[in-house]
Amino acid sequence: MTLHPVLQDVTARIVERSAEGRAEYLRRIRAAAQTGPARGRLACANLAHGFAASEPTEKQALRGHVKPNLAIVSSYNDMLSAHQPYRDYPETLKKAVIRAGGIAQFAGGVPAMCDGITQGRDGMQLSLYSRDVIAMSTAIALSHDMFDGALMLGVCDKITPGLLIGALSFGHLPTVFVPAGPMTSGLPNSEKAKVRQLYAEGKVGREELLEAEAASYHSAGTCTFYGTANSNQLLMEVLGLHLPGSSFVNPGTPLREALTKAAGRRVTELTRQGGEPTPIGEIVDERAIVNAVVALLASGGSTNHTMHLVAIARAAGITLTWDDMSDLSAVVPLVSRMYPNGEADVNHFHAAGGIAFLVHTLLRAGLLHDDVLTVAGRGLWRYTQEPVLRGDDLTWEEGPKASLDHDVLRPASDPFSADGGLRMLSGPLGRAVIKTSAVKPQHRLVTAPAVVFDDQHDFLEAFGHGHLDGRDFVAVIRYQGPAANGMPELHKLTPALGVLQDRGQKVAIVTDGRMSGASGKVPAAIHVTPEASLGGPLSRVLDGDLITLDADSGRLELHVDPADLQQRPITGRAPQGPEWAGTGRELFAAFRATVGSADTGASVFPGVTAPGQEVRVAQLA
Predict the structure, then answer these.
(1) Domains and CATH numbers, the chain
(2) pTM passes above 0.85
């Protein structure tokens, strides 16, 4: 099919904008490539350290200069359901690599924290920062010059983007990402949300709430709603970094184990010694990044990726902007409904046709670049195939060419909506992101007085005391940006706001914090930049100021004379000194001082830092 003209135009301008940075990145990774095993350039003492703990047969292989050595980097821990399945993966992968003619070593672990556990807690203020810590941890794991390729084991919110950013710093290495899959379906997400709202209203107790949550999050595997974790998995597949059809196969199944072994075999083949050299830095190019944005929009994915994809792109020398995403969203149809955008979970999506059908229908509509490199070979059409076990043999066969459930997944010719449900807002308050796919049309325009809070707990206290009852308002939750307190997610506000909206009040939220992939039915202008702690307009908003949030027109208006606003003193502030200590938060002071803005990826890395942030770096030094 002919490429959609907007897809062509957006890709062309990204290529032009990124020309210098991408050329420098490719020069660097190509210079790092070498024809023989990487360890061949190590001095004897260095190499001896690298295999000192290996078994005799492994030592012999590592002493030689023939077999490729693969790094395994894992986010395993046994507390988090999404990462618990990774416990036995290293040994499984090592055996698969050996059978394929290579050798593998566990190179390092990376931290993995759960936003679901830290929601509303101080620990959530480390969540976004953890992405860059994971990227650095990945780079440390790969830093020994022992490796000819890599296997990345990670699933959830900041873990997968962090692993990818770290892997791209070693972009000359072939790298395959290995998913663990979602847990089987439990209590339907709509029922869980209903109990949460009843709890917020005081109509059920903690015991009933805990029972509902435990019935929803009930076993090993990723949470089944379509938040950031499952958005990660879908994007890794459309980026061509997973094996086709591997993202949403449940843990503990024969197919899951077969796909894990296949990942070990495939990465061995992708090394120079394996005969199909395919560096990850060559896979993640401008077309692949555009494909990822399209897939995010078409599936109704997480707003966190308005930051993560920008940071990932920059790690590969590519400059992606919110305007690129907004222009694509205007023409990319929403073809999937998964909770919070619908009733289904990712297991239902997978059964209805999943990623194979999603790629098929978007390719037919001219909304994806087919001519891209992937770990499965050249051509995104390979991701219209599905893995199938025939006895003990794993094969890939043509996936469905029609959706098996039109309530969950539709063709691009008959979508749920004509646009991707992700909009950019702009106005006197700055720029923001809004996810509209779960917001009903009648709730997308709100004009109401501001109610200003500098902490989410103050909002919840006001709600609990009935101070927000019976009136329309726009809740301004400020000092929640990357430089203020790490940009925590503010999901605990959603049930309370949902209660008020259901009572007939017109409500919305405007914040420089995050709401993420579980952003729901209440209109939420999030990631507002410039953020309040850096003197953004939010820092001058007062209770009673009239605000208009118009998701359809893309307006975020503050009905205050600009001259009057500029003369106002800044009110409120981010936590300072001892207020921002405890739960490890004090260790991240340097991150607060150097982190970039949301629209440039909210990263601490040079090249991802926002213009003007260099002053803050210099002051810290």
Answers:
(1) 5-184+219-398 (no CATH), 186-218 (no CATH), 422-578 (3.50.30.80)
(2) yes
